[in-house]
Design a protein that fits this description.
227 residues; mainly alpha; 9 helices; 2 strands; 71% helix; globular
């Protein structure tokens, strides 16, 4: 257990914190929200080869729909053989389902690490102890991603703090998920079934509820990644 904790802290958590602080001090203009956006974009660039494989898989799967429909019709009485036939079709067309799984796993890992960063704190003496020698200690971090003064009084002020919960950003991710699901269903020319409609409603709703409970940084990461 100590070994796993050591690996997590030294090889995962500490590098992510250092990268986040480095981005904060350079490209993000000392704004932690924009540093998270820059981190997300950087991650997507690193995962680009997997994204290309995912895109190719989707194109090939679209072309396979007719063959899959024929297999389901002819081998309906033998589900095991039908699954094996579809598996052979995927192998013949060089579909690599592991690409999407690996990409999602890496993004989920970064989400968990970001959660730990914001829960345990990313400031003060604790931060200075884990920064590499070439990463400058930035002092107190600016966690306001977006702020706007729309009036003359202190109350006339809108601000989103990436370390706090945000109803708006959780709802925004939920809306984007709904749009994304509808777009994919139309792209595949799927007729909406009862299960599809349930998924269309329940998955974004559940995502909204979870993200509303968590710091806004999670919503910002997912939103940027989807965009």
């Amino acid at each position: 257990m100590d070994l796993l904790s050591h690996i997590w802290q030294i090889y995962l958590y500490q590098p992510l914190v250092n990268l986040l602080v480095y981005l904060y001090s350079t490209v993000a203009g000392q704004n932690l929200g924009w540093a998270v956006v820059a981190l997300t974009v950087s991650l997507r660039v690193v995962l680009l080869p997997l994204s290309i494989v995912e895109g190719r898989n989707e194109i090939v799967i679209e072309k396979m729909q007719e063959d899959v429909a024929i297999a389901e019709k002819h081998f309906r009485a033998d589900p095991m053989y039908m699954k094996e036939h579809i598996r052979l079709l995927m192998r013949k067309n060089k579909i690599r389902p592991w690409a999407k799984t690996l990409s999602l796993a890496i993004q989920l890992l970064v989400l968990v690490l970001l959660y730990q960063v914001f829960i345990t704190g990313i400031s003060g003496a604790q931060l200075s102890k884990i920064l590499y020698s070439f990463v400058e200690y930035p002092g107190r971090l600016n966690t306001l991603f977006f702020s706007y003064q729309y009036g003359s009084t202190p109350k006339d002020f809108i601000a989103f703090d990436v370390g706090q919960r945000s109803l708006f950003w959780a709802a925004l991710v939920g809306v984007v998920l709904v749009v994304d699901i509808i777009f994919k269903m139309k792209k595949l020319n799927q007729k909406a079934t009862g299960g599809d409609l349930t998924y269309l409603i329940m998955f974004p709703l559940a995502s909204f509820a979870i993200l509303w409970y968590l710091p806004m940084v999670k919503s910002l990461f997912i939103f940027t990644s989807m965009m």
